[in-house]
Amino acid sequence: MDCNIVEKANRIVNSEEDCYLALISENGYPSVSTISSIKTDGIFKAYFSSSTNGPKSLRIAKNNKASVCYRSEGNNVTLVGTIKVLTDTKTKNSLWVDWFIKHFPEGKDDPNYCIFEFTTKTVNLWIDRESAVFKISDVLKVQSRCGLLCNTCKYKESVNCVGCIETMGNPFHGECPIAICCQKLGYSHCGECPEMPCEQLNNYSCGDEEHGDKPAGARLSILKHWKEKSSN
Ligand code: SF4
Ligand code: SF4
Question: Could you say which architecture CATH assigns to the domain 3-137?
Answer without folding.
Answer: Roll (2.30)
